[in-house]
Amino acid sequence: MRKTIFFLMLLLCISSYSDALALSCAEPRTIQDEYAYSEIVFRGLAEEVDGAHITFRLLESWKGPTPVVMNLMVSNMWMDIVQGEQYLVYATNHSEYGLSANICGRTGLWEQTREDTDHFPNAGEVLVEERELELTSELVRKTPQLDILKITLWVLAVMIILSVALLVNFILSKRRRS
Questions:
Q1: Which residue has the higher pLDDT, 76 or 26?
Q2: What distance in Å separates the CA atoms of residue 41 and residue 140, rounded to the nearest whole number?
Q3: Given pLDDT bands bounded at 50, 70 and 90, which one contains residue 86?
C-alpha cells in the first residue's frame, strides 16, 4: 500500500508541472540604448496610487507622444511606486500589453536617475511640461482562456486517475484480506 501511495504521489508530482518564466537583468541597457529603445521618456510625479492604478503628473518629457491621459503598465518587481515621489520613466509600446515601462529598464526615482537626462540626444530640450498621466503598476500577462481551461482539465484528469487508482488499490487489498 505504501509503495502504491508513493508511486501515485510521485506520478502526481511529475505530471503537475507548470510553465516557468525566467527573467535576467544582469546587464541593464546603457542610457543611450534605453533612450533609443524607448518610445516615450518622461519625468512624472506620482500623484495618486490606487492599487494597480497610478496617476502621474507629467513634469517633463524628452521623447514620444504625450497625450493628456495615457495608460501605461509599470512593473513593480524591483520598486514600489510611492505617492508624492518623482520618477524618470522609459516606456515602450508592446503588442501584448500596450505601452509599458521597460522591464529591467532604467525607470526609477528621479533623485537616482536625473543624471540620465544629461546623456539624452536632446539634453536640455524639454518637449512638454505639466500634464496628467495614468499608469498601472503591474505588468499584466494576458493568459488566454484556453490555457486556463487546458490546465484545469489536466489537473482534473490527474485527480480522476489518482482516485480510480486508490479505489482499485483499496478493493484489491480488501479482497486479499478476505
A1: 26
A2: 21
A3: very high
List b or e across 35-53, with b for residues whose CB sees 16 or more CB atoms inside 10 angstroms: beebebbbbbbbeebeeee
Nearest to 138 by CA among 94, 89, 74: 74
**Beta pairing partners, 38:** none
The CATH number for 31-136, chosen from 1.10.10, 2.40.240, 2.40.50, 2.60.40, is: 2.40.50
pTM for this predicted structure: 0.58
Indicate the DSSP class of residue 138. Answer: S
Judge whether 81 and 54 are in contact, CB under 8 Å: yes
Higher confidence at residue 49 or residue 128? 49
Measure the CA–CA gap between 140 and 96, rounded to whole angstroms. Answer: 9
Please report where in the chains the cell 500589453 appears, as a residue: 97
**DSSP class of residue 128?**
B
Q: pLDDT of 38-85, one tens digit each?
A: 998 888 888 877 665 677 778 888 888 766 555 565 655 566 778 899
Q: Hey, where are the domains in the chain? A: 31-136, 144-171
Place of cell 540620465: 116
